[in-house]
Amino acid sequence: VIAGASVGLGAAFADAAAGHGFNVVLIARRQEALAVTAAAIEARRHVETRRLVVDLADPAAGQAIADATADIDVGVLVYNAAAEPEGLFLAPPLAGYRTNLEVNCWTPTVLCHLLGPRLQAKGRGAVAIVSSMAALQGIPMFTAYGAAKAYELILAEGLWHEWRAHGVDVLGYVVGATASSTFRGAAPDAYDGVAGSNPGAQRILQPASPEAVAARLFERLHLGPRQYSHDDDEIKASADAGLPRAEVVDAIGRVTSRLARFQSR
Ligand SMILES: NC(=O)c1ccc[n+]([C@@H]2O[C@H](COP(=O)([O-])OP(=O)(O)OC[C@H]3O[C@@H](n4cnc5c(N)ncnc54)[C@H](OP(=O)(O)O)[C@@H]3O)[C@@H](O)[C@H]2O)c1
């Protein structure tokens, strides 16, 4: 079951799951995009697909997905979808922050609560919650998004401990820059004037492919509780952990506040 699977990383996770022999349930809002992705997976992988058109911002989404998969022996849940409010915190209307909490916090919590007992009853299976490098420090211009991705990461780590005794793997997957459908990158000079030159510091200029990030999730699904989508992201996270928090937040803030999308605002 892949939540957020019409395009981008979610489509790559679904294809990778199918490559491991799983039939896949693809969930997203866009019917047409889901149909294209499902058809490509069926043709390439010869597995069955099921499409669920669901808005994960709907508070009832988790229950709807649990009901629509009640007849399936669910093996793996990948919660991939994200809402990404951006800009200065006070700029957008408050309603967008509710969507952020519904998509990034409430619905993954509900799905874990509803599907967890089914996985535990079998004594096997896995849940991967897709988080972000944005979860590892305050991230100006994406403040509420980063906070929500931190919730997802910590949720996964806690469940990893609680559920391993039941034979269920849980992974918080920390994703760094990936060339997905909505990835917009940064100007080549985005890091000018930003201190620090470890291998992960400039990853936004060299996004990974969704296929590589998806393949790695399935390689590391059993390793939990926190795995990174790219070696350089893990190196950066380790290096940042030893720095003063102000330095870390200021460094990422100098990059995000200079993204082209914010220059005209
Ligand atoms: N790409 C990166 O550089 C990057 C970096 C760090 C973390 N991540 C994380 O990686 C994950 C995937 O990102 P991505 O870049 O692949 O995004 P993306 O290309 O925008 O794809 C997001 C997927 O989620 C679905 N989705 C979004 N909101 C939804 C909603 N309310 N209800 C149902 N489905 C919804 C979208 O389908 P519909 O639009 O059809 O609903 C789409 O299939 C996210 O959790 C993100 O935080 C990405």
Describe it:
α1 crosses α6 (210-220), α3 (61-68) packs parallel to α4 and α4 (95-122) packs parallel to α5 (143-164). With 265 residues, this protein is an alpha/beta fold. The protein contains nine helices and seven strands. Helix content is 46%, strand content 12%. The protein binds NADP nicotinamide-adenine-dinucleotide phosphate. NADP nicotinamide-adenine-dinucleotide phosphate is lined by residues 4-10, 28-30, 33, 54-57, 80-83, 103, 130, 132-133, 149, 175-178, 180-183.
- List low-confidence stretches: none
Strand order of the largest sheet: 3-2-1-4-5-6-7
User: Major sheet, described briefly?
Assistant: 7 strands, parallel
Report the order of strands and helices.
Answer: EHEHEHEHEHEHEHHH
Please work out how many helical segments DSSP would assign. Answer: 9
- Small molecules bound in the structure, each named once: NADP nicotinamide-adenine-dinucleotide phosphate
> What is the β-strand count?
7
Strand percentage lies at 5-15%
Quaternary structure of the protein: single chain
- The span between the termini is 38 Å
Overall shape: globular
The overall pLDDT, averaged over residues, is: 94
User: What is the alpha-carbon Rg in Å?
Assistant: 18 Å
Describe, in short, the structure shown:
The protein has 265 residues and is of the alpha/beta class. The chain contains nine helices and seven strands, in the order E-H-E-H-E-H-E-H-E-H-E-H-E-H-H-H.
Topology:
Elements: E1 2-3, H1 8-19, E2 24-28, H2 31-45, E3 49-53, H3 61-68, E4 76-79, H4 95-122, E5 126-132, H5 143-164, E6 169-175, H6 210-220, E7 226-228, H7 231-241, H8 245-256, H9 260-263
Parallel strand pairs: 1-2, 1-4, 2-3, 4-5, 5-6, 6-7
Helix pairs in contact: 1-6, 3-4, 4-5
The protein binds NADP nicotinamide-adenine-dinucleotide phosphate.
